[in-house]
Structures are given as C-alpha cells and as structure tokens.
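pipeline/complex-builder :: batch 7 item 3
reading input block
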Amino acid sequence: MTKKTNTYSASAEVGSIRQRRTRWERMWLNLKKAPPTAIFGMIVITFYAFVSIFAPLLAPFGEADSQFSAYLGFGDIHLLGTDQIGRDILSRLIYGARNTIGIALITTLVSFAIGMSLGLIAAINRSYIDQLLSRGVDVLMAIPSLIFALMLLSIFGASTISLICIMAVLDSTRVFRLTRAVSMNVVVMDYVEAATLRGEKIGWIMRREILPNILPPLVAEFGLRFCFVFLAIAALSFLGVGIQPPTADWGTMVRETANLIQFAKYDLMRAMVPLIPAACIALLTVSVNFVVDWFLHKTSGIRDEH
Amino acid sequence: MSTDQIGKKGDILLEMKDVVIDGFSDDRWHEIIKKVDLTVKRGEVVGIIGESGAGKSTLGKAAMGFAQPGCRLTSGSIIFNGQELINQPEKEKRKIWGSKIAYVAQSAAASFNPAHRLLDQTTESGIRHGLMSKLEAEADAIDLYKAMQLPEAETIGFRYPHQVSGGQLQRAMTAMAMTSRPELIIFDEPTTALDVTTQVEVLASMRDAVARFNTAAIYITHDLAVVAQMADRIKVLRYGETMEEAETSKMLKNPSHPYTKSLWSVRSIEKKATTSNDKILEIKNVSAAYGKHLNVLHDINISVPRGKTVALVGESGSGKSTIARVITGLLPANQGEVLFNSDPLPNALSGRSTKQLQKIQMIYQSADTAMNPRHTVGEIIGRPLEFYLGLKEKEKEARVIELLEMIELDESFFDRLPSELSGGQKQRICIARALAAEPELIICDEVTSALDQIVQEGILKLLLKLQQDLDITYIFITHDIATVRAISDEIVVMLDGKVVEQGMKDEIFSPPHPDYTELLLSSVPEMDPEWLTNLLKKRGKK
C-alpha cells in the first residue's frame, strides 16, 4: 500500500491507513487483551444473568415453598438449609437473583432514560431550561438519597412499581449531571454546528450527533449506577420497605436470617447462612466494578507506557 | 570528550549517522525515521522540510538525543561535539540540554508557563546550569530581548506570557533558548502559528540572533519560502527518508528529485479573474457583535458575483470568520441585511427555510472536528441527500458513490470512519458533504490552512474544477495570500472588522495599495533566498 508517487493523488495518500477490521473482529481482539480481573467479572456477570433468566428451571424448590421444617442445616436435600419458616435457601437465592437484579436493572434503565434525555436537552439548549433543570437537580441531590427514598416510600407505599420509580428519579440526578457535563464538550464541535446549519431537529442532533460520542463514559457510569441502585434496593429491603415478602430477594433474606449470627458461638456453619446472600451481593458488585474499570480504562485513552 | 573551547566556524558540530527511530502505534513498533544522516557545521543553519508525518520533528528532537514518549532511538549514532548521545544516560544528556542545545517549539503560548513572568523563565536555564548568577542572567536577558527587537526590552520581562502577543512570545522563546549561548538551536516550526505580517518580524530577529552569536541551527518547517530565508542548506524529508539535500541556492534553482520538484510547483495554480453582474449574495451595511459588547463588524458591504470566488483576507481577529457566521445565520447581525438571490435572508438561523439553508453550505478549517467521528463516510455524505433531497437507500448510496468519485475518491471509502482517513481525504469528504446539498454558495473557512502544501494544491484544484463544472460560488476565507492568488476572482481585504479594500484580483495585487494591503502583500515569503534581506532594506528606507 505504501507506493510512493511523486505527484499528489488522493487515493495514493492511503499509505498509512491502518488495517480494516469489522466490529466483531475488533471486539474479539479487545476481549482477548482484557485483564484477568475483567474476564473474571464478565464470567460472574454471565453466570448471574444465566441463573436469573432460568431461575424456575434451576431452583430445586419453589420461591415461597414453606413446607419444610425451619432452620435446617446444610444437607443433601437442602444444600444450603432452610430459613425461619422452612423455605429452601438455595431456591430463594436463585429466585432472589432474578428479582433483585431485574428490579435494579429496570430502575437503572429508567433513571438513564430520564437523566440522559434531560441532560442532553440542557446541554444543547443552555437557556433557562438548563438553569431550571440543573437547579432542580441540585435540590434533589442536597437531600441524602436513602433518607429521601425512605420518606417517599412511606408516602407512596412500598410496592415494586413505586420502588422503581422513586429510585429511578433519585438516581437520574447523577446521570443528568454526567450527561450534561460530557455533552457540553461535544456540543461545541463543528459537526454539531454543521448539523444545526443543515437545519436538523434537536432530536436528531441529540440521538445521532451527540449520543454516540458520549456513550463510553455513560456505559461505564451505567455499570457503577447499577451497583449503587442494587445496593440501595438491598438496603431498603433489609430495612423492610423494599421488595415485599413472599418475593425472595437478597436484602430481605439477610434480614430474615440475621438473628442466626448470634449463634455463631455454637454452630459456625449455620451462622454463615445470612452471609450467603450478602456475599452474592458483594460478588456481583465487585464483578461489575472490575468490568467497568477495564472499560473506563479502554475508553478514557489512558495508555500504559510501553 | 573533545575540547570544550569554542570551535571554529565550519567544524562539524553535530553528526547523525544511520539514525533509525521507531514509533509505537497500533500495538507495534514502526520505523518512522529510516537511516537518516544529518550533519550540522558550526554557525550553519540547516533547514528540514517535508509534509506533516514526514518525521521532521522527530528527527529534530533526536538531534538532542531525545526521543519523545512513544518513540525510541533504535540504532545509528548521534555525535554532538565529539560526544555520542545515543545510549547516554538521561542525567548526562540533561547537562547538554538547555546549555549546549536549545529547542524552540512551534507554539510558544503552550510552551511558556502561564504562572511565571517571562524574565524568570528566560533566565531559568542559565541559572540552573550554573552558568551565571541571577543578576547577570537578568541583565543578559534584557540584552537578548533587545537583540530580538522586542519592544520595551527593559520591562517586557516583567510581564506574564498572556500579556504579550504571539509574535513577541515566539521571540521571547528564542531569547530564552539563547540565554546559555547554546551551540545548536533547534527551531521546530516557530512561525507556523503566526500571521504573515508578524512572521516577517520574527524571522528577521531570529536570523539576526543566530548570526550574531554564531549559533548553528536546525530549522524545521513545511514552508519552503520560509526555509529559503533562514537556511544555508536544505534537507527534504519524506516518509522518514531523505529525498534530497543541497545548498539553498542550488536547491531552489534546480531541484533534482521529482518529489522536491513537486513541492516547488505547488504555487503554480493560475486562474484568470473574471466577474459577473449577477450578484448571488449582497451584504449591506452589516454590523454584528458577540453578546452585548462592542461591534466586531462595522458597516460591512460586500457583494458576491454568481459562479465566482471572493476571497476574504486578513489577519486573525480581523472579523473574517464572523462574516461567515452572519451569512449562515449563526450570529444574527444587529444592523443591516444580507440579500441572497436578491431576497433578504432572515437574520437568525431559526427563521430560515430548509431551502435557504440548503443553498448556502459551509466547509470548515478543521475537517477533524467538522465530521462526527462515529459516522461513516457514507452516513456523513448521505445525510444531506436524505435531508434535503429525500433520497433513500439505493438511490442515496448511488449518489454518495457518485459524489465520492467527483472528489477523486472511490466507493472503498464508503464504510470508513473519519479516523481512518488522512487530512486531505477528510477535507475532501467535507467538500462532498457540502456538494451533496446541491448548494449555490459554499463558504470555505480556512479550508486548506491545516493541510500540507501538496495536499493543499490538490484540494484547491478540486475546488476550481467543481466550480467550473457546477457553477458554484465560493466565499473563501483565508490568511494565506498564495491561496488567494491561486483561486480568487475578487478580493476583500479586512482589518479590525472593517473592509480596507475590495475589488478584482488584478486590481488588488497591482499597486498602488492602501498601507495595510501593502504590508500584507509584501509580508508573504517568496521563493528567493534574498527576499527577507531585500524586504527589510526596503522597509528600513521608508
């Protein structure tokens, strides 16, 4: 390709162009170069996703099946024993994955839909709309979100729908701020001006000109926010205002079996039971963070010195 | 180690032999300098020219034994003053840097620390190398400021970098390089970022300083006419290889290598200026301001004949680009009106119809930021087709390929992203995007100033050809007189937001000129080694 011509021609100028690869090839190349932590994270996340999707097939017993004796230890039939009203803990753990992760995922998606569209509008518009939205967000962020969520949940009642809505709105404030900040840098580019001069509508400029260029930090933020939402829902469930029984979820499971911890002196194995759902929460959080770290590193342009 | 005493003029100061430098990109090492030799004698100025990416700067920095991050000196030898610099520990090289070899960078504004006064930065290297005390260094710096013909030499050192102009800053930087009386100075495109009128002053004072202290210098640039003024010997570099090396006068008279010849022929485009009475655009008594501040445009009157090229010329800050913003409606004029095809255009963008928008297109200076990095070429060119003309799928694709062929590229570019194109190709895609809208008027805002000369020529020829074929009108904003000479029919000279002079190309270029036009025209470097000397003589007489 590096044929040297002495007269200028545009197609001969191609000399230094890098090899073309399809998107899939590039993705595969990146994946092969991922650090072990990221690979670990991805495996765990895939496993969790698999378990949540196929929960009814994988779980040995029903979600609210309480026909067994309470507080059974680890055994052959009940691998992880049973809880205080005789439900199989392993089955509840598997269903719990589905509920907790599912609700956290929906909440994060809703909060991104709200935060991103408002953030983009604020960045493009920059008029009183930007002022109004930004100050509103400041007010929301000034109140500690867990306390705010508790208050709202006690007003609207602790149903799954209101849980999702309340957490999504509270969380969208952070998404709004990030989106607005990164879009600001893109909005001033010539290609956005070119689109404006062409007479494009604001929706097209948002979707096609700006969004693709701010996606990497937002995807990374999505991972982090998902963790926070997930932890917040677990915390709310632990406090009793989150996901309501008999629906299994990990936060509630920790609370229900928490009193087993005091028997650690007599039966260490049994005292570990409340720690199992807690460990599930911790493992997912760590894994998501591993993957997000790697992704951030890749897209932020930080390069290792060679 | 050889002698430390000052050597005689004509002794070899720097000798680089078979230098190979690798650069890291796309996850592997590439050779970017392939076995290049470079010899600099004492008191001699060697010019290195080439396009961007030719390896000029890398070679210049290697002359100090320095490899910038992402590069490594692979093999060869660099002997400075009898001392081998390759494989020398950093600590040893630091003793030479700043004291024996100094470096003057392209952007002085980015190279000065904005938080320190000029004087402190000028004297720093002399003091750090233990060559002189603070008082001596300061007295010396003032002498150097005088030598560089800086105004108010006694007090200018107490200013901060933002308080002096770009040209002054570049001269202060040369003074800084001179403080320790280095034996070799490397100038890396020191005047590229300056206006032509400023460039003359900076070139003159740099040349004086180099001659006065009998310093050897390596002068890196892409501008032939500039290097002709400065260098005793010129080396032409391409793809990291030497194309040709010869004495300046000899090289200018008869370049031997075909590539060098092609560099020489760049300014060869000729166009006969013509005009027409059919005015496509008329700007009448327009004034405009950013925010509520003072006007940046004052009572502008310009008329643009159909199918012709009108060049807007002036230094940076003269209001050229602001006119473009008024015409496109990005900056509504606060007074006056713009007539397009004899109909007044609504002042603000939001008031204009799609038809009006379609007929006026714009091409930007920096093709990098003018194209969305996430869109493929097909999408970039296809969008105006879809938006204005309602073309879909197959039709659209066929038309995009047609446009690609018009700009001398082919359909293999369809799926490429902007990051996979060279500078010239990017600008061509931007031209195609403008053409796609089937406009009557295209505003070209410094479209060639970020490009190499050879690429510039290609783009300008393309624009001329398109004008002939499609009868498009151009408003060409530029500060480069060579470009103006090449393609314009009419010229508008601007200064401080006012029109100084306007008329046909031949009229403007032939005397008598208003003072400012005279200054602007005479400041354009010519391909004659004596040009600067003669110009300074002439100006001195007045």
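note: The CA atoms of residues 157 and 241 of chain A lie 8 Å apart.
queue -> next item
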